[in-house]
């Protein structure tokens, strides 16, 4: 697994040109990392993300990441050398001497999102050598006074444990709920449900997660990476909904809105699961509310629980 501190180096430790094409004003400011996808030589890919921000001024980019070992910062110089091409040099923060050999990045800005692509040389042998890195970041707006003081990583989450990659989506804890602090990579219940998604958290009603080993009710909140390192915008969400309906199979569709789709699935074992997919800051958030051992139609209970987290996600990510 990649360390969060590596994201700054991978994205920005690349090179400087003597022939600049001028500063792209749209690039200046703060960007929060949302997804990094690395394609390997065998065409498989890894989807990751770190709790990282990058702040561009006219000369430098500062990449700050928060991880298990604390916060790190890398400093790079950058120049635009083509319509969609950057060259950036990783610098020693004390001497500002270059620390890396030059290499180019392709970039594009689409509405509030910055997308970067880096090609790796094909010289290294091995099926698992990286060949292409793609990333997407969302712009962090300055505060009311125009300051970029909010250009910081979110920091350690109290809602999850383990070393799973971090989602860019903020989430505060709703009243009446508490986090189920188990590592999704080691827990046999959560691992298949989380799969490759970015794990935001699992939650149970207050008292349930400590009074019983397997909460009868749980809400799981995920950030879906299957759409790649690109923003999912309103025009794209129709395809997301079609995929969701196809994947849910026998589930009962309960809502179909421009930026949200919902379904209820009842298993033969009696377990009921209600899921909402919604578009938040270009990400596809998955909120699944489950209940085990209940009798009768529990749609309202499940939906109310899911919508508590939907409302909190929308509020906390009103960028």
From TrEMBL:
Q: From which organism does this entry originate?
A: Duganella vulcania
Print the keywords alphabetically.
Signal
**Protein's name according to its UniProt entry:** DUF1311 domain-containing protein
Which residues, if any, are the signal sequence? 1-20
